[in-house]
Amino acid sequence: MQYHLNGFRPGDPELQAPGVGREINTPMPEKVDVLIVGCGPAGLTLAAQLAQFPDITTRIVERKDGPIERGQADGVSCRSMEMFNAFGFAEQVLKQGYWVNETTFWKGEKGADGINRIGRVQDVEDGLSEMPHIILNQARVHDMYLDVMRKSATRLVPDYGVEVAKLQVDEQGGEHPVHVTMRHTDARETQVRARYVVGCDGARSTVRDSIGRQLTGDSANQAWGVMDVLCVTDFPDVRCKTLIQSGDHGNVLIIPREGGYLVRLYIEMDKLAQGERVANRNLNEKHLIAAAQRIFSPFSMDIKEVVWWSVYEIGQRLTDKFDNVSAGQDQLPHVFIAGDACHTHSPKAGQGMNVSMGDGFNLGWKLALVLTGRAAPELLHTYSSERQAVAQDLIDFDREWARIMSERPAGTAGDTPVFQRYFVEHGRYTAGMSVTYKRSILTGEHHYQGLAKGFEIGTRFHSAPVVRLADAKPMELGHVIKADGRWRIFALAGAGDEGQKEGSIARFCENMGRKGGWLDDFTRADEDRDALIDFRAVFQQPFRTLAHEEMPSLLRPQKGAFGLIDYEKVFCADTRKGQDIFDLRGVDRNAGAIVIVRPDQYVAQVLPLDTQPRVADFFRGIFLTV
Length: 626
What we know:
Elements: E1 31-37, H1 41-50, E2 58-62, E3 75-76, H2 78-87, H3 90-96, E4 98-100, E5 102-107, E6 116-122, E7 133-135, H4 138-151, E8 159-160, E9 162-169, E10 178-184, E11 189-199, H5 206-210, E12 216-233, E13 241-245, E14 251-256, E15 263-271, H6 285-296, E16 301-318, E17 335-337, E18 343-344, H7 352-371, H8 381-405, H9 418-425, H10 427-430, E19 465-468, E20 473-476, E21 487-492, H11 504-513, E22 533-539, E23 558-559, E24 564-565, E25 570-573, H12 581-584, E26 593-597, E27 603-607, H13 612-620
Parallel strand pairs: 1-2, 1-11, 2-8, 5-13, 11-17, 21-22, 22-25
Antiparallel strand pairs: 3-7, 4-7, 5-6, 9-10, 10-11, 12-15, 12-16, 13-14, 14-15, 16-18, 19-20, 19-25, 21-26, 23-24, 26-27
Helix pairs in contact: 1-4, 1-7, 7-8
């Protein structure tokens, strides 16, 4: 990480200097820019992003009295780990979490006792991500987001014990058109007006109801139980993610938990009648334990402690839009919903927390661009269009996965069961890598995709190893992307380009960075050159053959109060076998490429190095000129 830019500051470098003129821990003001409702995964991701902008007045409220101690979700996909790295706490999660390395499959036969292991697979395919699949209590993830917020320039902390009682949008209400009545735990009510409100308040969302949205869908009429336990067992795969399909007693999904001892069990329970609710069955932890013991038989399962348990019925529900603008209406959105407020499903696919956090990450930087005057508010239409499509894919996947997980064994001996095949075939989806945003002002056309085939437009930026030129540090290129709201341009140099004056990289830097050039159209006079667009270059040559001091000035920008040189803009390919980014990501070695990356780590466009006007035009379609 970089710090000391504007002078030496002792102490924790992650603790940012408070924003100039910013009052800390004040009562809720009468007017705010953004009011976030709910401290779940979506709300905290959004809050942590907006906390990086001291010029934006953000508040987050939560009806509970304080942070949760244990959460229902625990699966952290590879994609979410990449996002956590942008927020700065991936290393903590790697240290504290359980790494899902292997998944095993067990099956019984109808009318026969016992279960047998029938297969095992690597959980995440090689090369899919530099990050693993992790299991960690949702409450710990919340703690880390809260820490990011507390250490930000805004020192943002939630207002607990507060819920939304009423919300109305007044289109003639000026800059703060959303009127919110909030109810406190002591029953008093207060009023606040907001430019934008984001409902992250769960499946029974008051915010969603206030804008006339509904969760629609269906139920599979199947009850499942879940419990976190400390147990003694002779089942050999209790520390592996395991799917068990017994012959006659139902199915179990084992999720080992962090800490080395705790285990989560998802247990198939009763089939429900049409319209029946699981609460009518009066199921308790004893029923869950008994069902688990039947499925594990002949292996023993001695439950020593049940840390947490719940029962639920499988269902998938989705809203048609994620904002307050109905189809055909010519107005700007001012109220948004995210997470469980707009999509609910069964927990066994392990995607709920991950997709919810993706909602928050997608919306946060867009709100920041609009509220800081960088982009027109029409940009905010893209939140609903992008994330509703992602949620629909989740619902479709979960419906099929839930159906398969509730099936009885079928097929002949030796056949690969359907549940095992489906898991293997959809590994990229469960890792969070299948999201592909469609063509929009934020995602370009694929005319030049062939220049960098491995950086697919609309998908997340697939990191690769590089070596930083100035200090010879081996690192992942994707790890330079931080959750700071900035865009990235990665220039991948063509053959023979060493940064020399006549080379493509130097010409690109000259056109982009010259006085009065297109970068000046979006950069304010008092800002560093990379305040909005962070430009970096990657060369093909080994790092010892290039000289940092000979690089174009745009790659050695002088920044901050003292005009200090940023030495971290130039990289070289890691030329060790199997590590070269140009080979790994299919970059055209002769021509090179420009890869534009959004603030949420998704590839926005791939363009040739010699088409500077196309790059400028792409950004002119998004940013307002200064």
